[in-house]
Amino acid sequence: MSLAPPLQQEVHALYSEHHPWLQGWLRRKLGGDTFDAADLAQDVFMRLLLRREPAQAREPRAFLATIAHGLVVEHWRRRELELAWLETLAALPEPQAPSPETRLVLLEALIEIDRVLDTLKPPVRSAFLLAQLDGLTCPQIATRLGVSLATVERYIAKALRACYALHFEA
């Protein structure tokens, strides 16, 4: 895929003029973590390079900060998920603990599922999690969410389709 020259020029200009500022902004948001700030700053510019058209932002720092903010939120969510996974593993008896390779594969799968669930509307995500994690039935979920049984069934079907789509993309 070749990039259009205006896009390359725009990203180059944004990078040249704002990369140090963005990396500092990210470092403050990440509690001083220089390495993660550098990685996320690069991710911001990679996202810009993957766009099909120039952004032509009037306020470049606000534009970059908006993209970076989303990446920071994703970063912290991934960390929380990773910590929860590590706590779960620590609670397992030694013979049941998965191998390091399996741990990594499962963590990556959890992160992908989390990303997919994040794309769903909150009621759809809630219905799916109540069914999958809490083991509630569709009638129980309907009562809990204050919606009809048919709505809960649609919500869960939508969430399952999103998860299956993730499975078949890989």
Structure in words:
Helix 1 (5-29) crosses helix 3 (60-91), helix 3 (60-91) crosses helix 4 and helix 4 packs across helix 7 (149-169). The mean pLDDT is 87. With 170 residues, the protein is mainly alpha-helical. The radius of gyration is 20 Å and the shape is globular. It has seven helices and no strands.
List keywords for this structure.
globular; 170 residues; mainly alpha
Summarize the structure.
With 170 residues, the protein is mainly α. It has helices spanning 5-29, 34-49, 60-91, 100-118, 122-132, 138-145, 149-169.
Summarize the biggest pleated sheet. none
Average the pLDDT over all residues and give the rounded result: 87
Note the overall shape: globular
Order of helices and strands: HHHHHHH
Total strand segments:
0
Strand content: under 5%
Approximate helicity band = over 70%
H/I helix tally: 7
> C-alpha Rg, in Å?
20 Å
Structural topology:
Blueprint: H1 5-29, H2 34-49, H3 60-91, H4 100-118, H5 122-132, H6 138-145, H7 149-169
Helix pairs in contact: 1-2, 1-3, 2-3, 3-4, 4-7, 5-6, 5-7, 6-7
